[in-house]
Amino acid sequence: MKEKQFSEMSDAELLKNKKMMTIMIAVLIGAIVLGLASGTYLAFQGEFTFSNVIPIVMIPMAILQNRNLKEIKKEVERRNLQ
Description:
Elements: H1 11-44, H2 54-78
Helix pairs in contact: 1-2
């Protein structure tokens, strides 16, 4: 199923996606920071595992989600919504 473009969404859908995306990015960044902190601690303890790499892999996801949020904000501004 193809996702709707932001310009094709209703005002309510757009505002809902903006709120959801903001929360999702905050949680994702929190997980990245927590993962990097625990990975750094474990690396200094001499235990390097695959779980140390997971936060690094999650960084591009956060960047892509942030780019989508910027596009949503531009569309909200274009429509003169909140």
